[in-house]
Specification:
Length: 372
């Protein structure tokens, strides 16, 4: 997880005459493994413009920006680095990881130019294990150290954190909290739709009462909602019914309300799909890590055994994706309800206009007869 300049504002000349550019000159024509964003690591066929757009709209980036206390030119973005590890003998291992840019002179805020997070985490965890006597002893062989480094890399999903507002959240927490926010927004969409339908029911009941006043015996009862109570009439502060709006104004406001509701649902649906896409990419990375872990350790997962580190995180991602899928299904249901409500409203409007045309025709005929 790193903080860097927006991709479209990156200036290649910014790092001229630095060790970073010197590295590329030394290895010109050869492969240099640079750090990649989450989408760059997964989508190989997208254009630079498409990747730039996706990088600007990462789940991590959006959540951090929404809670930004002091918005600036930098942003937080999730990156995917690579780690190579060679076990030479019982006492020797060699590791290599993705190259990161050199920090420009005087720059202190951009984490993109920080030291390798793997190396930093290794020393941090070894130091913590020495302090905490309850933890297992630190690795003492090259094989144990190799597993230690691999597990540490896998658990970055839960341990690597960035600032979100006045707190710090891991990758797991960022996605989980984003899904929780979507669940709240989905419930709000249902509430808005229910209130809108209740207002339409009130209007239709008022129109019906004008044409067909209920008799004193109580026949022709008003439509009730699901709770068994009649919709509340629209009244002003004095308790008297409000003045009715002109029909054309009411219809226009209803159309605008429908479009806003659909736009809100579509925006939330887009965000849900975006989160699920990010989870899909993270899961693919963890599946690769699980393959490497199983090949290196020789472990065979059995149902009655504890799961390996990558398998545990894959389960966490699956649980979050299941929650996001339920929200997506709910949003699709809202869109279906909005479409049904719009169709009913359109039919009512068409019938009202037809009745008004008939009434105007009768009025014109009477006026013609009397004038003649």
């Amino acid at each position: 997880m790193a903080t860097g300049q927006p991709l479209e504002n990156n200036d290649p000349e910014m790092f001229e005459n630095t060790a970073y550019q010197e590295l590329f000159r030394l290895y010109e024509g050869k492969v240099v493994h640079g750090t990649r964003t989450l989408d760059e690591a997964y989508y190989q066929s997208l254009t630079d413009k498409e990747l730039s757009d996706r990088n600007c709209d990462q789940v991590v980036t959006r959540r951090v920006q929404r809670h930004e206390l002091n918005p600036g030119k930098t942003w937080t973005i999730l990156r995917v680095d690579q780690l190579w590890l060679w076990l030479i003998d019982e006492q020797t291992i060699i590791t290599s990881s993705t190259h990161r840019k050199e920090r420009p002179p005087g720059e202190t805020k951009l984490d993109d130019f920080s030291e390798d997070p793997i190396i930093e985490k290794i020393w941090e965890n070894l130091r913590d294990e020495r302090v905490n006597r309850n933890d297992p002893p630190p690795p003492s062989t090259a094989l144990e150290m190799s597993k230690f480094i691999m597990e540490l890399s896998i658990r970055l999903f839960n341990s690597a954190k960035c600032r979100v507002g006045d707190t710090r959240e891991s990758i797991h927490q960022i996605f989980e909290n984003s899904i929780n926010d979507m669940a709240i927004d989905e419930a709000r969409l249902f509430d808005t739709f229910t209130k809108k339908v209740q207002e339409i029911i009130v209007h239709l009941e008022d129109e019906k009462d004008k044409k067909y006043p209920p008799d004193l015996k109580g026949e022709g009862k008003r439509v009730t909602n699901l709770r068994g109570t009649p919709p509340k009439a629209d009244k002003n502060s004095s308790g008297k019914p409000k003045d009715k709006k002109p029909e054309d104004l009411r219809v226009s406001e209803e159309i605008i309300s429908n479009l806003k509701s659909i736009d809100d649902a579509a925006s939330l649906l887009k965000e849900t799909k975006h989160i699920r896409d990010g989870l899909k990419i993270l899961k693919s990375i963890l599946v690769q890590q699980r393959t490497v872990w199983n090949d290196f350790t020789g472990e065979v997962q059995l149902d009655n055994q504890l799961k390996s580190p990558p398998s545990c995180i894959i389960d966490e991602i699956k649980n979050m994706d299941d929650a996001a899928e339920r929200i997506q299904t709910g949003i699709n249901s809202i869109l279906d309800l909005e479409q049904n409500e719009a169709s009913i409203s359109e039919a009512i409007t068409s019938r009202t206009e037809a009745q008004e045309s008939v009434r105007q025709g009768r009025t014109l005929m009477v006026f013609t007869v009397v004038s003649w």
